[in-house]
């Protein structure tokens, strides 16, 4: 075989496994290292080295080591905000929150189960999840509360925030159940709806009583 025969032609497509993006390589490297030597025992330099990227590349995608634990949720919050900020349709505010949460959940496959939560005991991520999770939960509450303040004026600002807190908490509980179910977990959206629906029904009944 000649050199020209071995070398791909210019413009020819390359066959083989596509190169993974830097964020994915960093996530995978972090997961491996956290399992090998725990979250606290792993540095950003070690994650970058294992991923084969520069330390500066890490900070192009993540602000801190803790951000690696919340990749899916951090990506889902803007999608939830966009879904709730879409042009208003006939669905009332409370019910539209449930629908938006379901749509966002539909975009997360079982292959993207948050490893830092699913393997928190093995990785030693529990303390960091507790430390960094509240700020993200409050961000979800803020997104839902702003929507409810606009779409369910009967609630008032305090009521909208209380309802948003209950809905966000239920959604998180549904997600936690999904993560813990194992290989038979099914779609995330099913778990979210099952957890959120009773909260929506309760707050709808409260609004009806006020009216």
Automatic annotation (TrEMBL):
Domain HTH tetR-type, chain residue ranges per copy: 20-80
Biased composition (Low complexity): 10-22
One matching Pfam family: TetR_N
DNA-binding region (UniProt annotation): 43-62
Presence of keyword Hydrolase: no
Region (Disordered): 1-22
Record-linked InterPro entries: DNA-bd_HTH_TetR-type_CS, Homeodomain-like_sf, HTH-type_TetR-like_transc_reg, HTH_TetR, MftR_C
Key words, A-Z: DNA-binding, Transcription, Transcription regulation
Domain of life: Bacteria
Protein name: TetR family transcriptional regulator
């Amino acid at each position: 075989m000649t050199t020209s025969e071995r070398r791909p032609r210019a413009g020819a497509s390359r066959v083989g496994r596509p190169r993974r993006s830097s964020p994915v390589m960093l996530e995978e490297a972090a997961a491996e290292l956290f399992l090998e030597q725990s979250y606290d025992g792993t540095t950003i330099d070690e994650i970058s080295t294992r991923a084969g990227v520069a330390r500066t590349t890490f900070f192009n995608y993540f602000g801190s080591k803790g951000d690696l634990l919340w990749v899916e949720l951090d990506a889902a919050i803007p999608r939830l905000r966009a879904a709730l900020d879409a042009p208003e349709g006939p669905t009332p505010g409370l019910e539209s929150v449930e629908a938006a949460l379901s749509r966002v959940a539909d975009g997360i496959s079982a292959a993207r189960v948050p490893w830092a939560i699913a393997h928190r005991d093995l990785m030693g991520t529990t303390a960091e999840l507790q430390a960094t999770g509240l700020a993200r939960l409050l961000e979800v509450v803020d997104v839902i509360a702003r929507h409810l303040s606009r779409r369910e004026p009967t609630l008032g600002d305090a009521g909208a925030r209380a309802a948003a807190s209950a809905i966000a908490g239920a959604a998180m509980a549904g997600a936690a159940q999904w993560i813990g179910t194992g290989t038979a977990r099914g779609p995330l959206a099913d778990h979210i709806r099952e957890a959120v629906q009773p909260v929506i029904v309760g707050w709808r009944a409260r609004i009806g009583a006020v009216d």
